[in-house]
Fold these 2 entries.
Entry 1:
Amino acid sequence: MSENNATRRRLMQGALATIGLNGIAPLLAPGIFSGIARAAAASAAANDRILVVLEMSGGNDGLNTVVPYGDDAYYRLRPAIGIREKQLRKLDAMHGLNPGMSGFERLWKDGQLAIVHGCGYDNPSFSHFTSMAYWHTATPNSGADTGWFGRLADRMSPQPKPNFLINVDAAQSLAVTSRVHTPVVFDDPEKFMREGLQQQRALLDQVPDAANGNASRAFLNDVARSARDASSLVRQAWHAYKSPVDYGINPLGLNKVAACIAASLPTRLYYTAYRNNAFDTHVQQVDLHQRLLTYTADAVLAFLRDMERLGQADRVAVLAFSEFGRRAKENASLGTDHGTANVMFFAGKGVRGGHYGERSSLAALDAGDNLVHTADFRRSYATAIDGWLRLGASQDVLRGRFQPFDIFA
Amino acid sequence: MKGVLGLALIGALLLAPGQPVMAASGWAGDLTPLPQAEWNVRRAAHLLERAGFGGTPEQVAELAALSPREAVRRLVYFEGAPASTLAPFDQSDIFDAALDAFPPSRPATTDLAKAKGEAIGVKVKPAGNRPIQPVANKFFYWLRASRLETHRINYWWANRMLASPRPFEEKMALFWHGHFATTEEKVRDYRKMLAQLELFQREGRGNFRTLLVGVAQDPAMLAFLDAGINVKGAPNENFAREIMELFSMGVGNYSEQDIREAARAFTGWNFQGLAFHVDADRHDDAEKTVLGRSGRFDGVDVIDIILQQPVTAEYIAGKLYAFFVRSDPDPGLKKKLGDLLRANRYEIAPFMEAVLLSKDFHAPESVATHIKSPVELIVSTYRKLGVKEMPGVPDFNEVSSALGQRLLYPPTVAGWAGGRSWVTPGLLILRGNFALDVVFPDISFLPEDRYPSYSTGNEIRAVHERIRAGLDMTSATRPVDKDGGMDMMAASSRNVDRDEDFNTRFASYRGWQMAIERVKPIPRTIARLDLTRMVIGAGCKTALDAVRHFEGRFLSVPLDDKSRNAIAEFLGKELGTSDLLAAETYAEDALRLTLHLIMSRPEYQLG
């Protein structure tokens, strides 16, 4: 649906332009755009690295993503849905990638893919919502109301900074909820525009201050301010963006991230996610799961190629995760139930490709046929914070000490 | 124009600037009834907003003229409310019995046809080279037809929210739909979705046990949670987990062992057609231990055990409260609410009566702090405008989806997160753009129930054009190349249509044609507004009066003086005079621009 509207509006804009009535241009605020682009250029000398997080919502089946085909126990646990050796994209004598992941195979061969094995946490929750909240807040059982990505933004810029944190999605993730910043959340850049007549513009852009002690009202005022500050920038970025790179069937918002980076937005943190618990594969999972992994691998590879094309590859790293893996033993419906420990991925030019951490043993499952994690998932977050962004702030952001992996040179 | 002055006063009464916004605080957490002396137009508007979807000043005045208890009972028990004359859902003739056993996927359907020579009512040749294309066509036909019909159900439902004299019935159904969130995306059968919605409308104000058992035995829910694969010897935990975690107790109040045991009690539960059915051979009749109790339980026994847990009443009461009142009851209040629901033996109506009548409901913490959901925003906009029928343009489904709430397609089994998650910078802008579409119709509107426009829409239209131009099926369905050629083309785009027996892209196209031939169209009427008559009829004489009327009619909080004056100045400038009466014959467009400004504001999101 959104695709169509976008198309429709583009068509309309094209038509308006050809008859010399482009009603869009006067609505933009070019002053803001060039100002921020200048500021971005000025800060480029310092550490200006960008972190992009991709959430594989629904509980990705890690065992059928990075398959331990060298371990016979895998085929004993998964006689029906285990992927046979000859179908896999082999990485080495133990592991092979799901056949759908040609994009990740390319990255692996180029030394730009790190696989972190055995990530999880103590007393795992099997609820999507609870477990995802743990991954979002990075503080299991704390009931925290801010996300780790939001706290990271607060640490990187303790003063509110427009457009510092972008969440490409229809709804805001808990992960990006911040004390200081109002994240820019949008789904379709084409629709990220207040429509209205020219004479209404000043009042449409006016953001009220009055809240009279009503917290919801104050929140809405903040959102309105963020919308005003971001919308024309993001839309211009999207209109200016044209890429020969094919992101595949589901670009997962990474093309929109690329557009923002191409336009030199001051954004350092981007968050994008699969919708609707896509990876929740309880039933007949093989084809569906492979398809989802193809989308993932296609989109990530395309994004990094796009960064290369734009000369931004040295600045950008991608972190991909899911709220849990799935039960080691397949279920009776050619699917898998909610599980525990899982693989995480880092991709990018700055990544030292290879395996990290320790594979969870298939011979020592817990009482519920689940993998036992070998590393706290927050070690990967710490890797992003301290290894990639070089902040030395992971203990602060994650509210605990977690040893980073040596993934970034 | 009778009552002109009275209506103008209503605007002023609702939101007199400078007047204290609310009565004394200290009411938060107080569940005793609101005294008659505290009852006024403002509180009546608050009640109608929350227990229904708001209304015109006339409708608010009617409630305000009653006592607080009468007003609440009129909404909750329909006392004194006229019976609804709205028709039941008018189904399109799209279903045939062969679709009842609809396979889980396109490959499963075509494989079945290849193996058996027949699938979903299409009989291909008994052996040899079987033509599979018609099977694939029919598979896509039903996917599309069921989806389009579900969109018609949404229209029917939205229209009830808008036009029913008993809006609380629909508001409760909306609550339960979010609570027992089931999506047609997975169920793939509009008939089951309709039956579930009718269950919520029928039982939504009744007893929670009746409802919970009804939902646990509801074909849409059983299909949604894969109940059919939960069988003796191989229990599937999905169903039992969601019943405990999301539908009754909340996470953390049971063990993983409880889930596994409860799953066994639900084994064999399934549906046949549109009826609940227990497959006795697949039911595990042995002893189970759930939440400390042991016995040869079936699903209903487990539900009764769940209902005995104090935490269940607290969880359900807390969710109702968050939906109707505010999102953050403190633990003390939560406990009180749980006690109240249990004291009412899980009867929803008396519980809601007590909540909606309470001082707490009218405390500053509760009033105008609710962020309207997309459906509340759309429906209340039309209700407050006095529109009597859900307009076809803009499309209700298109707008509500874009704003984050596509009915009968909740994002996950947990429903919609609600509260602040309803609004992001992107969504706030879209809410304002919806208001613009309400006051000035979008002439580029395309009806999505005729014109293929989902993410596959471009593809379907491209296939359509090429087939008609006489291209062979393979050429007509080839994906459009990108500028970069194969090297830049993603694997997923290269690997489509490897199956040679039939063409999926063609099936998707043909299925769309078959669906729109059978599914009835949605009428594309546009709301006819007359804001000039609205404000002049209400006694407004100046631009500022008109702004004040809009403010009182549409907003739950007053504007700040600066904003109000700026908007009034805008209207005056558009009219060329601040004298509204002098501008009566040409004021309409200026009033619409003004209303769009007000509806685009952060304050308009509060209800």
Entry 2:
Amino acid sequence: MNEERQNERDSQLSAMFDGELSAAECELLARRLSKDEALRGQWSRYSMIGAALRAERGVKLHDRVAIRVQAQISQEVIYGDATAADSAVMARPALTAGEARGGVTDRWMRFARPVFGVSIAAGVAAASILWLRNQESPEILAANPVPQTVTLAPEATGTVAVSPAPIEVTERVISNGEPERYTTPVPNSSTSIAPPARLANYVVAHSEYSSPLTRRMALLGLVASDGSGVPAEDTAASDQRPEDRTQVNAH
Amino acid sequence: MTTEESDLVLVKRVQRGDKTAFDLLVRKYQHKVVKLVLRYVRNPAEAEDIAQEAFIKAYRALPQFRGDSAFYTWMYRIAINTAKNQLASRDRSPIAYDLDLTDPEESHSVQTKLQDPDTPEGMALTEEIRGIVNSAIEGLPEELKTAIVLRELDGLSYEEIAAAMECPVGTVRSRIFRAREAIDKRLREVFEGGLGRTEEMV
């Protein structure tokens, strides 16, 4: 290598040490440094000159730390592909400052990643709230059943008044031996449609024992009921003969 | 290009599998890191051990380094944490020696070695290097001396030095290079055979 070229190379080395060399030149010189021990020695002496000028107290001017670290990392894993370090240079000779900082895509991803994270978290939270609200009603009803008071008309005309609040039961026996009021618990499940169906079957099967008007009212009550079946069941029970009533209670 | 970007070129090379690029970073910053660690531990040999450990930690963590901060800033934090951890572990487990320290003379000898295990030769060598560098600086033309001092002691960029010295940036680059070359020539004359011989002497 002639003196002029060597001077130019050494000048580049000095500029690279100070971070004043262009990225492309820096990459090429780094490639050269990886193969040239003498050049690395020169790099070390530049570092030593700076340390000596700064007169850093207690700092020994030698390469002991670097030599030990080099020996230790020689046994460490090699990142990436060792040949890729140079092939990347060949494929992409000029590393721009933007690329060196990580690139536009990386920066965009850095911004977008937390936004995606927050969106997913909000979606999960909303779904959880909706699911809990759907699950809440039956649980609360089951935990706090509201008693219903059914008041029967004395002549069993079919008028049924349902009031949700009272808990206390005042049992007054009317003329036919039936109590005037029943207090029945609200069913635990809103999906229990089996009792009205069974009751309907029962009413149909025993229709021959009841008067036409009473039978019609009982059926209307069943049809009009929302599926809970409680009012209709009580009305039907009031219409039955005493021997049948025990069967209803058993249901 | 800044020092951060120049270091990042080396970091990227390490991440692509070039271990010698990491060696360059260690050689560049080893003295600064040792100086930093010396704020936490007084013993220079212990400071070197901690600096070595910090560099190894940095190498192992380098795949995760994305260049959000400068390499030296990142290295600085690793070195401080390593030094603090070392201090904490030393506080937790005091060193026990299998030596009979009842003999006052022997006790004094051991303690002296623990405080500064570096050999006098090593200290003398460091002083000698400093002497060579300082005498070489004194022998430089004024414009070279000013340029290298502004760069190394004041940490100014080439552009700032150019503004201070009222000359083009290219001239600053040339002056700093020529100053380094002159000092390096003196060093090579003294330590013929390069830094390997320096290490042997230490």
